[in-house]
C-alpha cells in the first residue's frame, strides 16, 4: 500500500513537472522576470508564419496540362506525317530458290585406336625382324683378322715442328711501360726546357725594364723657355728714379 501511494505521488510529481514545463513553453504561468528576459532569447524563438499549397498545386496542374497538350500535338504531328506506300500492281515477286541439302548417309563407324594399333603392330614386327638380323650378324662373324696383313706404323710426311718461344704478357707490359716512361721523360724534358726558356726570357725582360726605369729616373732639367716680349704702349711719362734719403744725420740733431 505504501509503495502504491509512493508511486502515485511520484507520477503526480512527474506529471506536474511535465505540465509546468509545457505551460512554460506555451507561455502559461510565466512570471514578470521571465517576460523581462524576452529580449535575451528573442533570436532563438521560432516564429510561425502562414503557409499554403495553393500556388504549388496550381503550378503542378498547369505543368500537367502543358505536358498533355504537348503530347497531343506530338501525336497529331506523327499522324499527319504518316504516308502509306502505294499498292503494288501485278503478280508478286517469286520466292528465292532454296538450296536443298543432300540427306545424311550413314557410314561404318571406326575408332582411331584401331588404326594406331595396326601401326604399332607393324612397327613391332619391323623392329623384331631388325633385331633378329642384327643378332644373327653379330653372332656370325668371319675371322678376317687372320687374313689381314699385320699393322705397320708409317712415318708421317709432315715437316718437323719448329719450337717457338712463348710470348709472355709480362714482356709486352714491360715494353709498353718502357715506351710510356720514354714518352713521360720526353714530355718532362720539353716542359722543363720551356720553363727554363720562359724563366730566361722573364729575367732578360726584367733587366731591360730595370735599365729603362733607371734611364727614366735620371733627372734632366727642362730648357729655359724663351717668350716673345709684349710691349704695352703708355701715355704716361717715364718714371724718373730717385734714390731715397737713408741718412740718419738729421735725426741725431733732434
Automatic annotation (TrEMBL):
Keyword annotations for this protein, in alphabetical order, are:
Cytoplasm, Cytoskeleton
Q: Where is the composition biased (Polar residues)?
A: 242-254
Q: Where is the composition biased (Basic and acidic residues)?
A: 170-201
- Family per UniProt? Belongs to the TPX2 family.
Q: Name where it's found.
A: Cytoplasm, Cytoskeleton
Ligase as a keyword of this entry, yes or no, is no
Upper classification of the source organism reads: Eukaryota, Metazoa, Spiralia, Lophotrochozoa, Platyhelminthes
Q: Which GO terms describe its cellular component?
A: cytoskeleton
Put simply, this protein is called Targeting protein for Xklp2
Residues folding into a coiled coil are none
Positions of the region Disordered?
Answer: 150-201, 228-254
Main localisation, per the record? cytoplasm
Specify the TPX2 C-terminal domain's residue ranges: 167-237
